[in-house]
Amino acid sequence: MPILAIDQGTTSSRAVVYSDDLRVMASDQQEFSQHFPRSGWVEHDPEDIWASVAATARGAVEKAGNPPLAAIGITNQRETSVVWDRRTGQPIYNAIVWQDRRTADACAALKADGHESRVTPVTGLLLDPYFSATKIAWILDHVEGARARAEAGELAFGTIDSFLIWRLTGGRAHVTDATNAARTMLYDIHKGEWSDDLCELFRVPRSMLPEVRDCAADFGQSRADLFGREIPVLGVAGDQQAATVGQACFAPGMMKATYGTGCFALMNTGATAVRSGNRLLTTIAYQLDGRPTYALEGSIFVAGAVVQWLRDAMGLIRNAAETALLAAQADPEQDVIMVPAFTGLGAPWWRPEVRGAVFGLTRATGPAEFARAALRAVGFQTRDLIEAMRRDWPDLDQSVLRVDGGMTASAPAMQFLADILGAPVDRPVNTETTVQGAAWLAAHRAGLAGGPDDYAKAWALDRRFDPQADAGRRAALYDRWGRAVQAVIAMG
Question: Cys bridge to 95: 44, 198, 278, 393, which one at CB 3.0-4.6 A?
């Protein structure tokens, strides 16, 4: 029987119907509105999210011929936070999106008071508005009567997966999975439970929080009116963790990098929650049968967005596919370095105030050199993350990096990535690994798919990019990149 996988992202919702052997039968996708009420604020209307999910789910099922479904799997944008009325199911405020920076001052104040030392050992996270805890507190403090209602048990909090499950089940299930819980800054990733200490620190009533379950578990039954009968929700994972599962990174030391607007790299560290000494995040990669598997994670704010910048702001290309063709025409004697810190630098720097710059310009520098510098910047930033992971995990050495996402279609970009890493880069046949990860979790729980070892055997390689640049050239380029990064930090 088929599986319905829901992929609820930052700018669109998508639904895919998979056969029981995880072949795509049909899909549907719909964008929804973004709201920017003030500088640095990013919101979504939860009703828009729900409407887009319901529409695409029905659309995909109809395109597949309305087959009887065995299960539903969900993957979602992480950290985005919703608070709703338990009685009516209506949100009391817009969803505050993971990109939102409105609580930066609150995080800075908590950090100045020394509270990061309370947060990081428990959650694996840094004190940053990226995560859910300060978003929840902001809603309770700024919506009239919300804090009193929350303390009276009238309000519920959830990341997007939890809100969708509430709606899918008609309010019968207030649940989440361990990977989404781990991104709230309220969850003890070592004990596997909500932290009373952190709930007190962030002033979030514990009664608001959902029950935490494995990634492959029983999350409740959908309403019968949605698909003609009740369908069990059996798989849930945050988007980057779902991609890790989709890439079959089940062994310690395996790494994946997903290239979209930004880039997120995760490395499986097995049963050990490695405390990063290089400002990476320690998180849960997935949890099966009550046992968490941990990961180190690094975030790049600008990956595919640099190509959008070349197109929209600079007018150097008409579409993303032209980037590699233009870059191939670049003068080999010019080593232009672009640091695309349009919204600051992510891991391992965490410098939101820094802005971008271009170095090495000459009279001969033109669009081709800009295009090549833009693609190379993605490789340089990925190496920054991998170098940090190597320092935290010395046995990593020359591990293969599995890649997915839109930018991986560019062979020159992937070849440069392998060259600058000095390690192989593997691109799978299916680069839409996030939604497939959610489908496998649900299929596994439904008994339609085998365990991780069986799924790993089915992972198929499209192309391996082996490093071709000599060590001296690699070292020289990376040294120039490092000096460019230090320069923009100094200017920031």
Answer: 44
Q: Please report the pLDDT score of residue 398 as a whole number.
A: 60
What's the rounded Cα separation, in Å, for the pair 359 and 175?
Answer: 49
Distance CA 103, CA 443 (A): 39
> In this structure, how many other beta carbons lie within 10 angstroms of the beta carbon of residue 93?
18
d(CA 364, CA 381): 26
- The dihedral through the CA atoms of 391, 394, 397, 401 has a sign that is negative
Tokens of 293: 């598997």
**338-395: pLDDT as tens digits:** 999 887 788 888 787 788 899 999 999 999 999 999 999 999 999 999 989 988 887 7
Q: Strands across the sheet with 3-8, in order?
A: 24-31, 12-18, 3-8, 71-76, 233-238
Average pLDDT of the segment spanning 232-243: 96
Structure token pair of residue 14: 């998508």
Q: Which residue has the tokens 């990961």?
A: 295
| CA-closest candidate to residue 380, choices 280, 256, 474, 467 | 474
- N-to-C CA span, the chain: 55
CB 435 within 8 A of CB 386: no
- Taking the C-alpha atoms of residue 20 and residue 448, their distance in angstroms, rounded to an integer, is 6
Are residues 263 and 299 in contact, defined by beta-carbon separation less than 8 angstroms?
yes
CB 163 within 8 A of CB 188: no
